[in-house]
Automatic annotation (TrEMBL):
This is L-fucose isomerase. GO terms for molecular function: intramolecular oxidoreductase activity, interconverting aldoses and ketoses. Coiled coil: none annotated. Transmembrane segments: none annotated. GO terms for biological process: monosaccharide metabolic process. Keywords: Carbohydrate metabolism, Isomerase. SUPFAM superfamilies: FucI/AraA N-terminal and middle domains. One of its GO terms (cellular component) is cytoplasm.
Amino acid sequence: MQSPYDPRLDSICVRIAASPLHSPILIARISRLLEEGFKSLWGSSPGVEPYAVTSGEEIEPSGCRSLLLVLATGGTEAIALEAVEEARGKGVPVLIAAQPYANSLPSLLEVKPMLEGPGASWIYLSSLDPRNSETLWVLEQGVRGLWAASRLRGSRIAAIGPPSPWLVYSRARPEDLARLGVELVQIDPLEFAGYVAKEDVPEDLGKQLLEKGEVVELADGEPARSLKVYRALKRLWRDRGLDAVSPACWWFYKEAGANACLAHSLLNDEGLVVGCEGDIPATLSMMLATYASGKPAFFANPAHIRSDSLLLAHCTAPLSMGLRIQFRRHFITGGSVTSSVWFPEGSKVTVSRLDPGLQLLRVGVGVIERGRPEREMQCESQMIVRMPGASKILEESIGNHYVATLGDSSEALRVAADLLGLRLERLGSK
């Protein structure tokens, strides 16, 4: 079953570029790799024509949300540059792929220094065998990065209320959001209160939820109160045509008698990105991370840092990230309900964050050493990550919240950063 964060393949145009002297046999092999590779990864293919374009004019990026251009041969440098220029003019991101035959890689090396600026990136497919695991991984990372960038551009993110007052630095300016093609929709908390008030929660919905884990302790009226917030956010999402939401969380507890933590956990599992506390830069980070990985993200506080170790803790982890789930009262308020998610120890995890100026994307890859809540006076879901360069999060702060997704999606985030014109900073690299 596909993740709700998987790429929409019908929005990706695929073209194969070759010199006029190209070999039909080579084009057929590339077409087969792409068709079978896409089907292996996502069960379907965007459709790959078994012929090659031989000039930039034949690319025709119109109607494409994004473009994958595979260089079949040498002599395709001008074609690639024409395609990038044409696509940039239409706001279409381009991913250029090279492969190891017919001077394809030399063409990429020649053109790569000229791809600076937003709108273009690259990958290298080391084989044309559609069963080659390394090639499939690179293709997947490239396409996910392409999808993440194209999905972010043109997106609508809603802020329900102002940022939480303690977020004195993690605030995004309208002009920076506009540079990334993101529209910020401001929603009055009183308007959302009307959504919450209208919701009725079927009794069996709460029962089905609690059957997913172990009930430790719930506040009175839970989980029904939190499920009203969950259903209201879901309806607001549909009514307003949103791509992401970041509520001012504490307002919910004061006005609605429930916080939004449980709603965050459930909605992110359903493919609806929900960030915390009105932190727009971190919510955008969450969007990129989820689209690039194809998995929901854990929006968390760095609660303890050593040289190469990081404790991430928060109350909003998606239930699907856990091997075990507990339902508890909220850590800070003692009311409402949150989920305590036990993460899979030994698993790779990708940690990332955008700076508030939306110019830098910081990315690190580590391993979950401890995935269960063990530290007192911390939020309910906790993971200790062994990650090279973790100390830089403290030494060169770009703000609070970071997001974590299971697996290594650093290459997909590298592609997305290229396409969005972001500077990529890899933790642990020199």
